[in-house]
């Protein structure tokens, strides 16, 4: 069922964040649990843990500590939209977040978009305002990487570690 969803999660960032990772809009499970990439089958946290050679953060506090330690900010491109469940392909009537506000409050050097929908929306609506090119990263959703963290996914995410050293 398609319904209007307003982004209710606050962006996670610190003034020393060097990297901003933008998804499209939080999944149903992430909205329920109150933080980003909370669906247990999503590979986001598993991928970053492998990239940084650290244990998988389990709690929201663990995840926030992980992000802070590695100077990573998380948010989403979409402020509100109509969507069927968590399906990016069903998204319509998009309003985007004010990415510039976050950029002014951080030291973000690079912006990454997670998945094609976020990349396309960022380039269409946000890039003209931010003037910062985004780097596409493949989605970690179980819909797009059902076989786990393969080398292709892992290698794509290694660029984040290079920037946050």
What are the secondary-structure elements, in order, as H or E? EEHHHEEEHEHEH
Query: Which structural class best describes the helix and strand composition?
Result: alpha/beta
What is the CA–CA distance across the termini? 43 Å
- Tell me about the largest β-sheet: 4 strands, parallel
β-sheet strand percentage: 15-25%
Average the pLDDT over all residues and give the rounded result: 91
Features:
single chain; globular; alpha/beta; 3-stranded antiparallel sheet; 165 residues; 35% helix; Uracil-DNA Glycosylase, subunit E; 22% strand; 4-stranded parallel sheet
Report what the structure shows:
By secondary structure, the protein is of the alpha/beta class. It has one domain: Uracil-DNA Glycosylase, subunit E, CATH 3.40.470. The chain is 35% helix and 22% strand. It contains six helices and seven strands; from the N terminus they run ββαααβββαβαβα. The strands form two sheets. Strands 3-2-6-7 form a four-stranded parallel sheet, with helices on both faces. α2 crosses α6. It is globular and about 40 Å long. The chain starts with a strand and ends with a helix. The mean pLDDT is 91.
């Amino acid at each position: 069922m398609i319904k209007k969803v307003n982004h209710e999660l606050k962006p996670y960032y610190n003034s020393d964040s060097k990297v901003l990772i933008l998804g499209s809009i939080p999944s149903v499970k992430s909205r329920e649990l109150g933080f980003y990439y909370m669906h247990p089958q999503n590979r986001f946290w598993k991928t970053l843990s492998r990239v940084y050679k650290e244990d998988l953060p389990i709690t929201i506090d663990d995840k926030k500590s992980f992000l802070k330690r590695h100077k990573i900010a998380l948010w989403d491109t979409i402020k509100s939209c109509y969507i069927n469940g968590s399906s990016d392909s069903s998204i319509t009537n998009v309003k985007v977040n004010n990415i510039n506000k976050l950029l002014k409050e951080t030291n973000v050097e690079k912006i990454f978009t997670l998945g094609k929908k976020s990349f396309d929306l960022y380039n269409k609506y946000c890039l003209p305002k931010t003037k910062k090119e985004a780097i596409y990263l493949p989605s970690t959703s179980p819909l797009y990487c059902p076989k786990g963290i393969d080398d292709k996914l892992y290698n794509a995410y290694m660029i984040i570690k290079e920037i946050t050293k």
